[in-house]
Amino acid sequence: MRNLAAASSGRSGDVRSSPTGLSVFMSMLIVLSSFLTPFYHCARLSSGHTVSVSLQSPWPAVAPASQELEFLSHLSGDQARQYLLTDKTAESLLTTRSVKSLMKFTVLNKYFSPMVEYHRSFARVAGRGCQEEASVVVEVAGKGLKGGCLPKGVCVVTKAGNSSTEDFGVEVQEGAVGGPSTTVVVYGEVKSLATTVALKSLMTECCIDCRVVFRHGDGPGDFTLQPRELISGYGAGLTIKNSEYKASADEGEDAEAAGSAHQGTGCGEVGVCWTRLQERFSEVDFTRAKANLKSEKILSPADRKLKAWELTSIGAQLLEAARGDLARVVEILEDFPARVVELSQATVAKGVEEQVSEVAQGLTQSGSVYVLGSGDVIDEKMVALHPFIDKLLPIYLAVEELAGLGLEESEAARMVRNATRLPTAGRMEWKGEGGVGPVYVYNVLKDPQASRWSEELDVLVQMMMMGQRGIAPLKRVVFDIIFLIDLADRQQVLETVGKLLVQPFPARIALVPSTTTQAGARAAECFSELYGSGRKKELKKVRQFLQALVRAANSEEDDVMSVDAIERVCEDVLLEALPPSGGEVSQVVKKGQAWAAAKGLPFPSVVVNGRVSGDLGDMALFINEDFGALGTAWYTKLVEKQKKEKGEEEVDWDSEEDDDGEVTDVIRELIFPEKSVDSLSSVYHPALFDDDQADLVRLPIEALRRVTSIEVPTTSEGPAAPLHVLVAVGGGLEELEENFVIVKRMAEVLEGRPGAIFTVVGTNPEVNARLLGCAHTLEALRNFKNSKCSKMSTVGPDVEEAAARLARSARAEDSRGVVLVMNGRRTELDVAEAKPILDDLLDSLLTPFAVKQNVQQGECCGLDSLACTVALSLMQTVAAVENPHREMMEEGLEKAFEKAPLAGFNLAARGHMVAQIVASVDPLTDAGRSALSTISHMSAALDGFGARLVLAPQEKYSEYPLKGWHRTVMAMGVAEEAAAARAEFNLTPTRNTLTLGLEVLPNWQVSSLRGEADMDNIRLTPVDPERVDAQYVLKQLYIEGQSYDVDENGHPRGPADGAQLQLVAQDQPLAETWVMRNLGYYQLYANPGRYDIRLKPNTVGESVYEAMGSNVVDVNKFLMPAYPVKLRLRPGMARELIYEQQEDDKSDGGPIHIFTVASGHLYEQLLAIMVLSVRNHTTSRLCFWFIDQFLSPQFREFIPRLAEEYDFDRRSSG
C-alpha cells in the first residue's frame, strides 16, 4: 500500500513491484534532500511567491479574423460580406467608436469562440466526404453548381446528413429571384486567399443563381493536434482554509495553543520538528534557520488574526481609503487578507461612519439587484463577462444600426439609452353585472388532473431563473378566458376548445356560443341542456360534450359541422335524444350574448384577462405575454418585500396571511384589471418583439427606399408608437384585384395615424410594375383598379432585387394571398376567409401599435420619415421593459450620493454613453467583490459604458468578511492579452494554508489539467517553491433544462421524472442523464455543435414516453440558456408505470456503485486506501464514481492503474 500511495501522489513506480536495495538508498537521498532544501531557501529568505492560474479551451484556437466576422454578422447590413470579399478591416466597416471598442473587447476575450467552433463542427462532418485534405470545403444542396470551375484544392461534397444547409452563417449571395435555388455552403479560413477565390468564383461563374453561405472551417491539419487557447471570463480565488481562520482569535492565545499542541514533540513554528531534525542530522546547525522561521518579518499581514473589535469599522475604513476611486476599491478587495490589517488600523472621522450607517440601512437589502439601460434587472451572481456581453451586444449594435440610417453617434446613443418598450393594448372590464355574463365551464382549482401541480408562485421565479418561457404547472387561476365562438365551426372549435379544454390549465374558462347558424344554434341548445344549473356533475358533461366536439371537428372535412353531426355528439354525452328546438334562446346563452353585446364584442373573438382579439390565434400570444408578465411581477414583488423587511427577521413565504396578500397584489391587481398598482404596473409591458412569438423581419432601409413606401399623412397631432406596415401581395396579375382589397382597406385604416409608413411590394415582378405605376401615392392606391391600370412602370434590377428581398424577409415568395408584417409581426391572410371579418381583423392586428407614447418624432434629428420610423421600430428590439426598480433604486442612489458622498461612485462613460449600470453593492461580500471587479474592468475597456454605484458595506463585522485573494480574468488590450488570459497572485510568505478555486459560469465543467502543487492545500512559507502554476481546462459545457410530460397540444402536465435522456450526435450517444423529480430538471454536457436529445433506447422511460417533435439543441455560446424537452405518454401508458417497472426490473446482476469525493493529495491517497479496503471486503463487481472537477492531474492519471490492479469499473462525473 505504501507504493500505491506514492503512485497516487504523483511518484512513478509499479504498484506490483517490491522495494529493492537501490530504491531504498534512493529514497533515503530523497528524504535527506527534502529536509536540507528548505534550509537553503531559509538562508535566502524568499521574499515572495507567485501563484499563476489559467484556463484552457477544449477546442482549437480561434483566429481574431473569425471572431470579427462573427461580430459583423450580427449587423443587418452588408459589413460581414464586405469583410469576406474585400481587403477592408473589420474596424473600417464600423461607424461608431463605442461599437469598435466592443468588437475589440469581444475578440480579445474569445466571446465568439464557441460560435466559431459550432460552425467548425459542421465543417468536419462535411469534410469527411473529401478524399484528400482541403483548405476549403464546398457543400452543395441542388444542381446549380457548374462542374470543374472551382479552383484546385477545393473539395466539393453533396449535402451531408446533418442539416448543415439550414439558414445560418454569413450569406454572401442571396440566390435566384423567385423559384428554388441551389444552396452552397462554403467552409474555410476567414480572409485566406483560397477562401476568397472560391467565394468569388461561386458568385461570378460557377453558381451565379446559387445562394452562397460562408461558415468557418478548420483548414488542413489534424484537429486533435491543433493548439488550444487560454480563455477568460471567470474568477480565481485563493482562500484561507476556514479550519485555521478565526477572525476573533487572540494571537497570544493562538501561540499558547500551538505550543501546547506541540509540547513534547519537539515541533515548533510552521510544523518543523527541530528536536527530531537535530537528532537525525547532528552535524547540521539549525540555529539560523530556526531564528528565521520565527521572525515576524517573513510573515504576511494575512497571518495576523484580528480581534472582533478591530473589524467593527472596516466598511468605513474601506470607503475612506478609496475616496471615490473604484479602481482603488477593487485593488484593495483583490488582496483583502494582505490589506486588512493595515486597513483596520486607519482612523476614520465620525462623519464617515455615519455615511456608512446611512447607506447600510437604506440600500443593503437591494444589493443583489443591478439595473442596466432602461430597467433590465441583472442578478448579482450573473455580473460576469459573458452574461454581461450578452446584455450589451444588442444595445451597442443598435447604435451602429442607427448610425447606418444617418444619425450621429451621440444621437444614436441617446436614442438607445432612452429606449423603452411600448405598452400593449389596454384591457376591458369583462365582468358582467346584474347576473348578465358568460358561464364558466372549467376551473383549474376543481380539476383533479391538476392535483399534482404546485400552488406556490415561487415556481414562476424558478422558471425565470432557468430561462423557461412556457406555462408552469401552477394550481392557480392565472387566466380568465372567455370564448365567443360558433360551436359548429370546425376551425373555431379547434383554435379554442381544442387547445385548452383537453388538459389541465391554470385558468378559469367561460363560453358564449353563437346562434347565427342553424348548426351553431343547435350546438348552443345542447350546451344549455347539459349545463343545467351548473353543478359539478353537469359541468363534467359539458366538458365531455366540448371534447367530443373537438374529436368530431378533427374528423370532419367541411368547415361547418352539420346539424346531424352536432346532435349525434350531444346525444352520445346526454345518453338520450336532444329535445327538439324550441325556437327561443335559453337563459344560459341569452345572458352570455347580452353580455357580449354590452361589451361590444364580435363573434368570433377571445378575451384573455380583459384583452380582446377577433383573431382566435392571439389567444396563445396573450397567454404567453401575461404569464411572462406575472413572473416578472412576482419576482419584483419578492425583491420589494425583501427591501421592506430590512433583514430584521426571516421572511415566511409560506404563511397563509402573506400568501393571500401576494396573490391579491400580483394576480388580481396586475393580471386582472380590478385595481391599479402604481408601484408594479410598469413592469407589465411585454416586449413588442418577442423572440418566441413573433419573427423580427428586418427591413433594410436601402431596399425600402426603392419600392412603394408611402408615408401616411397625419390628421391628428401628438406622438404615437412608430409603425411600419409591410404588405407583400402574392400571386400574379390575375389575382391582384382580389388581393388588393386588403391593401386598400389597410390604407384606409392607417390614414390619419401619426408615425406610420406603408410599404407595398408584390412577389411577382409584373405586379410590382403595376404598383409602381398606378399605386405610388395613398390617393392612387385608394383608387387603384387593376383593369384600368395602363401605366406600367419600368422595374429596374435594383427595384426588383429590393422587392424580392423584402418578400423573402416576409416569407411571402410562395404565398397566393397577402402577408402583413407590422413592426416585425407577421400574419398571412387568405383573402376569401379574411373578407367577412376584415375590419375586426385589422383592428385587432393594429391595436397593440396604436398606443401613444412619450417619444416625439422630432427626436430622429433630421432623418426622413421612413428612416425615422425604422429607427423607432428598431428601438423596440433593444429596449428593456420599464421596471419600477429603476426609479426606486435611482431615487435611493441619489439620496446616497447626497448624504454619503464617500459611498457614491460615478464611472463616467468615455465618449457617448450607450449603457449604464445602476447598482448598490456590499463590497465586502464575495459576490459584491466579483461584481465590482467586472464592472471596473469593463468600464476601463469599453467606450460608452458607465456606472453609478453606491457601496453599502455593513455597519459592523464580527469576523473577516473576505477570507481570500481574488482575481477577475479578463483581457483588456492587445499588449496585455497574454498576461490577462491568466490570474496572477503575488503574495508574501504566509503560515496559512490556501485553497485555490475558480468562479466559473454555472454551465462550465472545469477540471485541472496540469499542476504539481496540491491546489487544495497550497503552502507559501519561505521553504516552499516561489512559483505555483495551475492550469485548468474547460472540459465541457453543460446543457440543462426541464423535461415535461405534455399532452397532445404541448401543454405541460408535470415533470417527466424518471425518464432517461441521451445526447446524440451523428447517431452516436455522447452523454446520458435522468430527469429529476424536482421540476423535471436534467443536465447533459457537450462541446459546441448540434445535438439531438432523445430518450435512451431500451429503457423503461422509452416504453412509457415518446418525444413530442424533435429536440435539437445548438451549443454555440459560453452561457447556454435552458432547453425544454417535451415528452408525452404513449397510448395506454401512465406516468406511474415508469417507477413500477423500474421496481420490477431490479436485479442483483449489476455492479455495486460507490460515489467518491476527494479534494487534495492527502485525501486522494486516503481514497486509494479506501478502494483497497472495499475490494478486500467483497468479491462483487464494483463501479467507483469519481468527481472529476476535484481530482488532481496526477491522481486522474493514476486511476486507470488502480482500476486494473483491483479490478473495478470506473466512471467520472462533473
Automatic annotation (TrEMBL):
Record Pfam families: Glyco_transf_24, Thioredoxin_14, UDP-g_GGTase
Q: Name one GO molecular function term.
A: unfolded protein binding
Q: Where is the Glucosyltransferase 24 catalytic domain?
A: 1152-1209
Q: Which GO terms describe its biological process?
A: ERAD pathway; protein N-linked glycosylation via asparagine
Q: Which stretches are transmembrane?
A: 21-40
Tell me which UniProt keywords the record has, alphabetically: Endoplasmic reticulum, Glycoprotein, Membrane, Signal, Transmembrane, Transmembrane helix
Q: Does the keyword Signal apply?
A: yes
Name by which UniProt lists this protein? UDP-glucose:glycoprotein glucosyltransferase
State the GO CC annotations. endoplasmic reticulum lumen
**Intracellular or extracellular location(s):** Endoplasmic reticulum lumen
Q: Where is the UGGT thioredoxin-like domain?
A: 433-613
